Amino acid sequence: MTEPRLDAIPAGIATAADYEALAATRLDPTAWRYLQDGSGNNLTLAANRRAFEAQTLMPRPLADVRGGHTRLNLFGQALEHPILLAPIAYQRLFHPDGEFASAMAAAAQGGAMWVSSLASQSLESIAEASQQAGGGDQSAPWFQLYWQGDRERTLRLARRAEAADYPVHMLTVDAPVKLATLELPGEVQAVNLEHPLVAAPLRQGQSKVFDGWMAQAPTWDDLAWLRDQLRQPLILKGILHADDAEHAINLGCDGLVVSNHGGRVLDGAPASLNALPAILARVAGRVPVLFDSGIRDGRDVFKALSLGASAVLLGRPYIWGLASAGALGVAHTIRLVRDELELSMALSGCKTLAGLSTTGPQEG
Fold it and tell me: Which pLDDT value is given to residue 119?
């Protein structure tokens, strides 16, 4: 028996992690496992946490940080803070208000949400809810695009997001073929997608992986084609190798997200935080580099930004807030993480995001 969802922020919630136990009691066990688990033996999931724990913070007392803030401009949008909501599928699995609640919370907190291709509510209605909550076009959510098996289907989905005024597109490439890992209830579906593409039957000797699943996955040529089709900034998510970062920039991508998909795809992939420095060194400031995978609190945000990331994507923790208390829970989670970021900055003698690289984390 699951507990009823809350209609107010409960007493005693001091960190985003405090929502985890509340969410666990309010979700069906299948949905909870889908949210929490990584792939395989959860090696990458654990590696993400160890990487953050290995970084220590250096206090710098006596600095005058009055007037400090976390504001930034990213891909043409003014944001109050660098904590973006990661694209997470099927959010009505976790709360009846689904993506509406998350998008409204992100906008109300002066940030942005990446809306998944696998959203359980329409792109148009999510965008409308976000803009109403945030007070205008500057509160529009951003769109995360999965390759749809071929160019025409992919472009139709991207154009739909474009028509709904999503100002930034992000192509996720580290999970090129999305395979269902749970049976969705009838009322929760990826409502923005066309019917699944039917793969051609395999011939004798062909591989289900190489000639089946991956035949529908994007290539570098497809990325170059997509870049030519879109007017909006195009961000590439799922990069862990510096050579891939270089290739993406050369093809015209406007930003990168260093990510191992929260440990949900290739078990044994390196921790995103460990991959970040080499990619930043190769990129050398040519495009913004965002960070994803393993963020749990504001100190983690501080560490990723101090290494050079422009912003971070927050994943599971905001869904804990959503499952517990809907939009209020998401907004409260963002605020808690932002408060921890600001405190980490202040105690490290840093008053703006621009100064983080001089007060960054230390290897433990």
Answer: 97
pLDDT tens-digit map of 150-162: 999 999 999 999 9
Closest listed residue to residue 218, CA positions, set 208, 227, 206: 227
Alpha helices in 178-315 (DSSP H): 220-229, 242-250, 272-283, 298-307
Q: Which helix (H) or strand (E) holds 362?
A: strand 362-363
- Whether the predicted pLDDT of 180 surpasses 70: no
* DSSP, residue by residue, 73-84: EETTEEESSSEE
Output the CA torsion sign for 318, 323, 326, 328.
negative
User: Do residues 125 and 99 lie in contact, with contact meaning Cβ atoms separated by under 8 Å?
Assistant: no
* Beta strands 289-292 and 311-314, pairing class: parallel
Is residue 349 a contact partner of residue 61, using CB atoms and an 8 Å limit? yes
The count of other CB atoms within 10 Å of the CB of residue 284 is 8
Instruction: State the burial class of residue 147 (Cβ atoms within 10 Å of its Cβ: 0-12, 13-18, 19+).
Output: buried
Cβ neighbour number for residue 17 with a 10 Å cutoff: 14
**Beta strands 234-239 and 255-258: pairing type?**
parallel
Confidence of residue 172 (pLDDT cuts 50, 70, 90): very high
Task: Catalogue all structural domains in the chain, each as residue range(s) with its CATH number.
Answer: 18-46+71-182+207-339 (3.20.20.70)
Query: Residue 83 pairs with which residues in a beta bridge?
Result: 312
Given the residues 95, 169, 261, 332, select the one marked as catalytic.
261
User: Is residue 261 among the annotated active site residues?
Assistant: yes
Closest CA to 83 of 350, 362, 292, 280: 292
Contact status, residue 290 vs residue 245, Cβ threshold 8 Å: no
Q: Which residues make Cβ contacts (< 8 Å) with residue 285, sequence separation at least 6?
A: none
Helix (H) or strand (E) holding 259: none
Whether pTM exceeds 0.90: yes
Three-class secondary structure of residue 278 per DSSP: helix
CB-based burial label for 204 (10 Å; 0-12, 13-18, 19+): exposed
Q: Which residues of 310-329 are buried (b: 16+ CB within 10 A; e: fewer)?
A: bbbbbbbbbbbbbbbbbbbb
